[in-house]
Design brief:
four-stranded mixed β-sheet; 3 helices; alpha+beta; globular
């Protein structure tokens, strides 16, 4: 797993970092809030305690998430997406810059 992700998880949630157990409306709202402030990252597959629970996904569904975020935000937000695997659990990182 990427050391940056492990460092982020250890730092915990902040003004620019949120943990989510799954992708949904809340994820899109958080990314929108980050884009309207300083930018930030949502890690999907992490619970509120910072434990990696993982998420079942494919590259295709990650692309669908990006399309969903893009179509439901105005102006459109297009996050950078990365996938990391740790002990056979997948974590998805969605990052946005200040817009």
């Amino acid at each position: 797993m990427n050391k940056n992700i492990q460092t982020l998880i250890k730092q915990g949630e902040s003004e620019s970092l949120e943990f989510k157990t799954s992708f949904g409306k809340e994820t899109m709202e958080t990314l929108s809030a980050f884009a309207n402030s300083k930018g930030g990252t949502v890690l999907i597959g992490i619970n509120d305690k910072g434990e990696i629970i993982g998420v079942q996904t494919t590259q295709e569904s990650i692309q669908q998430w990006i399309n969903q975020i893009k179509s439901s935000t105005s102006p459109s937000i297009i996050p950078d997406a990365d996938s990391f695997t740790h002990k056979s659990k997948t974590v998805i990182s969605l990052s946005v810059r200040k817009s």
